[in-house]
Amino acid sequence: MKPTILLSHRLAEPPHVVRIFGTNGVRGIINQSMTVDMALDISRSAATILGAGHVAVARDSRMGGEMFSRAIVSGLLSTGCSVIDIGLAPTPTLQFVVPRLGCVGGIMITASHNPGEFSGIKVMGSDGIEVSRDVEDSIENSYFGREFRVAPWDRIGTVESYDSALRQFMDAIKSHIDVQGAQKRRLTVVVDCANSVGSLVTPQLMRELGCKVFSMNGQLDGTFPGRDPEPLPENLTELSRAVVSIGADIGIAHDGDADRATFVDERGQVLWGDQSFALIASRVLARKPGSTLVTPVSSGRLIEDVAKQTGAQIVWTEVGSVVVSHKVKELGADLGGEENGGVFYPPHQPVRDGPMTAAQVVDILAAEGVSLSGLIQKLPKYASAKTKVPVPAEKRDRILGVLLQMTEGQNRITLDGIKLIYDEGWILMRPSGTEPLWRCFAEGKTQKTADKLSQQGVNLIREAAASS
Ligand code: MG
């Protein structure tokens, strides 16, 4: 069977532009749209652009991890790069060691939260952050032009294993936590790592923070028998039940590569990502007057409230963790975060880090001496509404221009789609990156307001589509 080439399109780019990189790395179905040949050539291209030196390689527990890893290592060696093989590890562990080992970059084999049949590749620069769009473009040019650096026979790279990464990473996280305080609180924690690499860090880390740990879906298994790797509330019903029946203080769930953490309170309620982000932000931002917080336009009022209370300044970005990481680093920001549970804590590292986020929540619970639901109850409440608006494929990208004209002069942010801001709430309208539709997110103080704003957004999109 002829393998199909993975076609992923960046947001708002015309559908004919063929890309290998999507919003966060390369993704595809194993042995179909994500093949060994692609992995080999992507690694050759990445090494060509990253330059000569060491590249660290790691993988999550997905099927095909060894297969892709060997192809990637071969590709890297052929360019003259040497490989530091980290083996199985969370993405943030790889990101943490890349700059500390003096690597020119890192390659992570993962499809993050995607279903089991997917795998993928994330390329990191020498700072451990996923490479910027410009560098992705250069890698793509090398890939499609088949312009690879080829080392002479006596300059082929070498491979060494590095087995201290997990320990080094856990020790670094603990250096930002009041370990003794956490140990005194002796929380009971249920950890659900979706049968992937979070299991190699978070259960042990929690034990070292004095927690009594119950682990579920802890054995590494690329078929993901326990649950879907995306830590959405509907995938965490067993975790919720376990937390309640054990009488645990919290539940912690990671996605497939453990760069995100979702929390369950002691009553079994799954927290929205923006709630855990807000808890961490309240603490981090209050430490320093005039702190800077970086977050995508998709984040809501809750985080704005926290910024106001703590006197922090918000810097908005486009949606996507890579953009947030680069902005956090560029500004030397104090914190970054996303509404999906991604928290970027720069004193540790400026990238999303699930185990660091979990440790921060434990640290907060220990310091406050109250339950997680008690902390959440103190946060302001908002309701949200999400709608998809199908549009004719040929009009998808033209609608933006019309919407920009229609909303001229309104209080808005136009970094990524259009966010309209009102006293009672906000509407964010963005085109889908892959499908002929627009997405409309709205948030308000009540569900009625959120629904009303959402309908207003839908009407605007339809009106713009009609006159495009
Ligand atoms: Mg992930």
Approximate helicity band: 25-40%
Spell out the CATH superfamily of the largest domain.
Alpha-D-Glucose-1,6-Bisphosphate, subunit A, domain 3
Mean pLDDT: 94
Terminal CA distance reads 41 Å
Radius of gyration: 22 Å
Across the major sheet, the strand order is: 1-5-4-2-3-6
The CATH topology label of the largest domain is Alpha-D-Glucose-1,6-Bisphosphate, Chain A, domain 3
Low-confidence blocks of residues: 1-16
Report strand %.
15-25%
The helix/strand class is alpha/beta
- Coarse morphology: globular
Bound molecules: magnesium ion
Number of domains: 3
Would you report the number of β strands? Answer: 20
Q: How many helical elements?
A: 15
CATH class call of the largest domain: Alpha Beta
* CATH architecture field of the largest domain: 3-Layer(aba) Sandwich
Largest sheet: 6 strands, mixed
Q: What's a quick, concise take on this entry?
A:
With 468 residues, the protein is α/β, with parallel strands linked by helices. The chain is 36% helix and 21% strand. It has helices at 36-50, 65-78, 91-100, 133-145, 165-174, 179-185, 202-208, 237-246, 273-286, 301-310, 321-331, 354-368, 372-377, 399-406, 447-466, and strands spanning 26-29, 54-59, 82-88, 105-109, 118-124, 159-161, 188-192, 212-216, 250-254, 261-264, 292-296, 313-317, 335-337, 343-345, 349-352, 383-390, 412-413, 418-421, 425-431, 437-444.
